[in-house]
Amino acid sequence: MKTKLKTIISVTLLLVLLFGMAVPIASARTQGWFQQGKTWYYRQSDGSLASGWLQDGGTWYYFRSNGAMATGWIQDSGTWYYLRSNGTMVTGWLNDGYVWYYLHPSGAMATGWLQEGTTRYYLRSSGIMVTGTNTIDGVRHSFSSSGVWLGQSTAVKCVLVTVGSAQYYVCN
């Protein structure tokens, strides 16, 4: 009985050493995606974790310095980008909550005047698309509920007034 038990243990240890160790060592160096817990990572061909921007299959992703894939709003070199929950970079119009943003084909968030074909929009410095009546550079403008610029309001004139360090538009 003791001899049979020793044989089973020896064979088991041999199989673990031969097969059990080979898989983790090989997969640790495999290029591509892997998940730890709820976080996704991308291992590059040299074995290092991706950080910064990575294009995979024509789609852009962003990885933090620790290698974790980013989601939601990120700021890179002063420019804002939005990444879906699956990590893919968004371009075009984005509805985030109750507000609209526009992300250029580069993924960068748009601000200021935006021309799409013959349609104009205005996006605040926060990237949020305006609607209704807004004063932009001292001029009153009207926008539809979908953000389309309807034109200037010529009946109202505005001037920029400085009070201390604050600036205000005063319109008649």
Write up what this structure looks like:
With 172 residues, the protein is mainly β. The chain has 2 helices and 15 strands. The strands form 7 sheets. A 3-stranded antiparallel β-sheet has the order 11-12-13, with no helix packed on it. The protein has a two-stranded antiparallel ribbon with strand order 1-2. The protein has a two-stranded antiparallel sheet with strand order 3-4. A hairpin with a 2-residue loop joins β7 (92-96) and β8 (99-103). The chain is elongated. The termini are far apart. Mean pLDDT is 84; it is low at 11-27.
In short:
This protein is mostly beta strands. Helix content is 15%, strand content 44%. The longest helix is centred in the N-terminal third of the chain and has 19 residues, at 2-20.
Topology:
Blueprint: H1 2-20, H2 22-27, E1 32-36, E2 39-43, E3 52-56, E4 59-63, E5 72-76, E6 79-83, E7 92-96, E8 99-103, E9 112-116, E10 119-123, E11 132-136, E12 139-143, E13 149-152, E14 158-163, E15 166-171
Antiparallel strand pairs: 1-2, 3-4, 5-6, 7-8, 9-10, 11-12, 12-13, 14-15
